Amino acid sequence: MPDEPHAEDPRGALEAQMSADLRQLNAESDQITRVFAQRNNLTANDFRALLYVMVADSQGEPLTAGALGHRMQVTGGAVTHLVERLIASNHIRRAPHAGDRRKVMLHYDDHGMAVAGAFFAPLGAHMRDAIADLPDADLEAAHRVFEAMCGAMQTYSAALGGDK
């Protein structure tokens, strides 16, 4: 891998370890999300869409179907079909934009949140147990690292022509 640690560069070794940790976290997350999707009759694209909707919603910036299609890099027809399927399964819902009634925003539906909550709550408990002995200062530092890494990934994605 291009970020292999070098004994003479302690900072480089730490950065390489963080990159390896991020890859492992991504692989573990991918496996768990595949099981969730399988158990809930969702395709990989369905799950990706749900994740985009949830992240945008939690950041207070809900997506339109068009914005979702742009992020997923799918056609208008494909995103319409995907959104209709997720609405029919009660995972997401449409709602008028608060400031512009012409826009329709996508939000996670209560049923979708309940399904996700039931599946992911045990993972949350495992996570809390895993970090229970870490001091708050370590968690705050980890949050700053995650923010920086997400920012770097967003910058790289934008440079590649992706969205966010």
What does this 3D model show about the protein?
The protein has 164 residues and is mainly alpha-helical. Among the domains are: 1-39; 41-109, Orthogonal Bundle (Arc Repressor Mutant, subunit A), CATH 1.10.10.10. Helices cover 69% and strands 6% of the residues. It contains six helices and two strands, in the order H-H-H-H-E-E-H-H. The chain has helices at residues 10-39, 44-58, 65-72, 76-88, 110-131, 136-160, and strands spanning 92-96, 104-108. The chain has a two-stranded antiparallel ribbon. A hairpin with a 7-residue loop joins strand 1 (92-96) and strand 2 (104-108). Helix 3 (65-72) crosses helix 4 (76-88). The model has no long low-confidence stretch (mean pLDDT 92).
How many H/I helices? 6
Q: Could you name the CATH class of the domain at 41-109? A: Mainly Alpha
Structural class: mainly alpha
Tell me the fraction of residues in β-strands, as a range: 5-15%
Compute the separation of the termini in Å: 25 Å
CATH topology of the domain at 41-109: Arc Repressor Mutant, subunit A
Q: Spans with pLDDT under 50 lasting ≥5 residues?
A: none
Mean pLDDT: 92
Overall 3D form: globular
Give the name of the CATH architecture of the domain at 41-109. Orthogonal Bundle
Secondary-structure element series:
HHHHEEHH
Largest sheet: 2 strands, antiparallel
Q: Classify the helix fraction into a percent range.
A: 55-70%
Rounded Rg? 19 Å
CATH superfamily of the domain at 41-109: Winged helix-like DNA-binding domain superfamily/Winged helix DNA-binding domain
Q: Kindly report the spatial arrangement of strands forming the biggest sheet.
A: 1-2
For the secondary structure, the number of strands is: 2
